[in-house]
Amino acid sequence: MDRFWSAPPVTRRTIVAAMFAESALVHGGLLNPMSVVFYSPWIFKFPPELWRLLSSFILTGAGFSFIFDLYFMYTYALGLELNSPRFSQPGDFFTYVVFVATVILGTGGLVLGGHVFTQTLLLAFIYTFAQDNRGKKAHFVIVQIPVELLPWAMLTLTLVMGGPQAALQQAMGVIAAHLYDFLTRLYPTFQGGRNYIQTPAAVRRLFGADRSAFTHHAHGTSFRPGRPVPQQQSRGWASGFSSSWGGRGAGRRLGGD
């Protein structure tokens, strides 16, 4: 629980907690799955069922998929929100999630007619994570591969196990994440264009841009760094974090004055 509460707000309070609650209710038989999936005729009717725009991103599979989807979503969302140099300011990761989710709804929902986008959003996170950690290694199933190949390995696995339609639907996550990368990094850096995807000032304030970096909770005190956390070596296909013993201290001699 300490590790959960120490996680940043988007990963902890929005994505993972909501995913656990909704999926537990659906797979426990307490909530009709048809009431949370994306279905455009029900969204654009009157009154519109607008919650489907969000609930379709947080429904896991049943059985072991419930555990694995939660674990991978927590791992990669946490890795991006804490460690990615793209999201160094409060609210940047939230803006990224809103952008890729909007692209996924347009491509995977309206164009391809998809209903649940949890795996698609997860693949978008994995693609961005892989771009941030290029040159490192990750474990996929039982083999070690370059981390930048991880999204394509997952797409191949989906193609084999779920078929072409499932793989095409999941690939919309790669398209959404690559479009964000192009508009915010590639185009401004190499073409001299302007980055139009900026975090609004109101969102920055909502995520604490005008508050102290120290936040007190009932369970303890958390610290929000003012600059990005240094990138760490990826040691597993589902993890981009090394242990807390991986770094060195300041080098002071024990027993000194």
TrEMBL record:
Mode of membrane association: Multi-pass membrane protein
GO cellular component labels: endoplasmic reticulum membrane
Protein name, entry field: Derlin
Region (Disordered): 218-257
Residue ranges of the TM segments: 15-39, 51-73, 93-126, 138-161
GO biological process: response to stress
Primary location group: endoplasmic reticulum
Keyword Disulfide bond annotated: no
Compositional bias annotation for Gly residues: 246-257
Family, per entry: Belongs to the derlin family.
Organism for this UniProt entry: Capronia epimyces CBS 606.96
NAD as UniProt keyword: no
Superkingdom, taxonomy of origin: Eukaryota
Compartment(s): Endoplasmic reticulum membrane
PANTHER family in alphabetical order: DER1-LIKE PROTEIN, DERLIN
Assigned keywords, A-Z: Endoplasmic reticulum, Membrane, Transmembrane, Transmembrane helix
Residue spans of biased composition, Low complexity class: 234-245
Function: May be involved in the degradation of misfolded endoplasmic reticulum (ER) luminal proteins.
